[in-house]
Design brief:
The complex is a heterodimer of chains A (112) and B (113). With 112 residues, chain A is an all-beta fold. In chain A, strands 2, 5, 6, 10, 11 and 12 form a 6-stranded mixed β-sheet that branches. Chain A starts with a strand and ends with a strand. In chain A, 39% of the residues are buried. Chain B is an all-beta fold. In chain B, strands 2, 4, 5, 6, 9, 10 and 11 form a 7-stranded mixed β-sheet that branches. A 4-stranded antiparallel β-sheet of chain B has the order 1-3-8-7, with no helix packed on it. In chain B, strand 5 and strand 6 form a beta hairpin. The chains are: A mainly beta (112), B mainly beta (113). Chains A and B meet through strand 5, strand 6 and strand 11 of A and strand 5 and strand 10 of B.
């Protein structure tokens, strides 16, 4: 079945470090891909999205490229800040599907 | 333009009581999802609804749980005869169409005592 696999956390980095959070998916078609972020005690916020192969989603310095050949959608940021500390979820959605499939989440902690 | 509104934000129920969780989707959105999140865990799909219809309830427990999205008013997730294991955060999300991004509410944190 369709699934999303994220790198296990927690990930701890120093401020201004480069961030990569890996996400791969298993799907029979061509889903849309998303990254959501969840701050403590809050709901999920849509961070970025890509709807077709080779699309690059970007927002607030974060980027992710839809790679069909490697079925991946890795999240990157060139210089993280303490305020980026949160849990990040990778997700996929088919046009014909009835649910958004989420990865297990990756907790990111940034040290000052 | 208000986002997805969930209420209450926090709900405490004694074992055996009923819990009603409300979700008002974003304006113009007719698709609603409900997810459950246990502490330090990911999101578990429960149910997907369009106005007046349940499209996919494959993630809903067979007993005690029900959901609706009437023509007028918010979507309701109802849990009857709550047990301690129902304690979790329940999130609602809405989307304009079935293949567009979903926006989440702040969640309802249910505590069963």
């Amino acid at each position: 079945g369709d699934s999303v696999t994220q790198m296990e956390g927690p990930v701890t980095l120093s401020e201004e470090a480069f961030l990569t959070i890996n996400c791969t998916y298993t799907a029979t078609g061509y889903p849309s891909l998303f990254w959501y972020v969840q701050y403590p005690g809050e709901g999920l916020q849509l961070l970025l999205k890509a709807t077709k192969a080779d699309d690059k989603g970007s927002n607030k310095g974060f980027e992710a490229t839809y790679r069909k050949e490697t079925t991946s959608f890795h999240l990157e940021k060139g210089s993280v800040q303490v305020s980026d500390s949160a849990v990040y979820f990778c997700a996929l959605l088919y046009s014909s599907a009835s649910k958004i499939i989420f990865g297990s989440g990756t907790r990111l902690s940034i040290r000052p | 333009n208000a986002g997805v509104m969930q209420n209450p934000r926090h709900l405490v129920r004694r074992r055996g009581q009923e819990a009603r969780l409300r979700c008002s989707p974003m304006k113009g959105h007719s698709h609603v999802y409900w997810y459950r999140q246990l502490p330090e865990e990911g999101l578990k799909f429960m149910v997907y609804l369009q106005k007046e219809n349940i499209i996919d309830e494959s993630g809903m427990p067979k007993e005690r749980f029900s959901a609706e999205f009437p023509k007028e008013g918010p979507s309701i997730l109802r849990i009857q005869q709550v047990v301690r294991g129902d304690s979790a955060a329940y999130f609602c999300a809405s989307s304009y169409q079935s293949d567009t991004e979903a926006f989440f509410g702040q969640g309802t944190r249910l505590t069963v005592v």
